[in-house]
Amino acid sequence: CKPNPIRTGFHMNIMNTPEQELHRLFGLNLSQVQKVIADAVNHNGGQNAYGDIYFQDGSAQSITLDQGVIKNTASAIVNGAGVRVVVGDKTGYSPTDHVNITNLRDCAKIARAITNYTAGAQNIPLAASSKLQNLYPVKSSPVDVDVPVKIAILKKIDQMARAYDPRIINVTASISCDYYTVIIVTSLGHI
């Protein structure tokens, strides 16, 4: 199900674990993600290799009011992932906009191939996360604010700027907001 251009109600439920969010947003489980990490770092036994998968889901919006008229509006939806492999001073990275196990495993193989493995540290298996790390809690996303409310704010800014000094004749105001859920899974066993 593809979200609306103006996406509402999509943000992370703060009661969900990272594993639940991974499944809700991308349809993946820990076992599948572990296979991707293994594909990324287990060449030559995973020696001296570090890998991670960066998952991102969210949306961005912007509205520009110029001389009292809406001039630009934009919205974007982001849903993708990238696999990174680091060996010594070499880094391989491969992204996908179509997140599924097949594409992620292909990304892992591409990222791994970029690095030319050597020998060293071992991959640590993923363990279920017992706590959610919501580093920047937001009660409600600015993305969820209705567009007419945002336009009203811009018009108020325009009025306030013009009221400040009669010499102000050109006013441009804009609102931009982004809201993303990011999940990072590492070869060190962290999610």
List keywords for this structure.
elongated; single chain; 4 strands; alpha+beta
Short description:
This protein is an alpha+beta fold and 191 residues long. 28% of the residues lie in helices and 31% in strands.
Give the total of beta strands: 4
Side by side, the strands of the main sheet go 3-2-1-4
- List the total number of helices: 4
Question: What distance separates the N and C termini?
Answer: 26 Å
**Main beta sheet strand tally, sense and closure:** 4 strands, antiparallel
Classify the helix fraction into a percent range.
Answer: 25-40%
Structural classification: alpha+beta
Write up this protein.
- This protein is an alpha+beta fold and 191 residues long.
- It contains four helices and four strands.
- It has helices at residues 18-26, 30-41, 101-115, 147-164; strands spanning 49-66, 69-87, 90-96, 172-186.
- It has a four-stranded antiparallel β-sheet with strand order 3-2-1-4.
- A hairpin with a 2-residue loop joins strand 1 (49-66) and strand 2.
- Helix 2 (30-41) runs parallel beside helix 3 (101-115).
- The longest helix has 18 residues, at 147-164.
- It is elongated and about 70 Å long.
- The chain starts with 17 loop residues before the first helix and ends in a 5-residue tail after the last strand.
- Residues 1-12 have low confidence and may be disordered.
